[in-house]
Design brief:
Order of helices and strands: HEE
Shape: elongated
Strand order of the largest sheet: 1-2
Low-confidence stretches: none
Structural class: alpha+beta
Distance between the termini: 51 Å
Number of helices: 1
Strand content: 15-25%
Radius of gyration: 23 Å
Mean pLDDT: 76
Length: 66
Amino acid sequence: MKSAISLFVFIITIFCFFSFNKKNEPAKQWIRINQLGYTPAGVKVAVWCGKEEVTIPSFDVIDSAS
């Protein structure tokens, strides 16, 4: 029984080490959206920005409700 508890603690420790030992890299691309002042049915504008020059071959606009 004691070895099973030790094994469980060891596995949890290893899991935590690999889960939280990731380096958080800053985003290289992002989408800026200003929702202030738009009417519900109005046309919205989003701007894709990036730190590097990248050509986007295609993109999709997806409605989160559907």
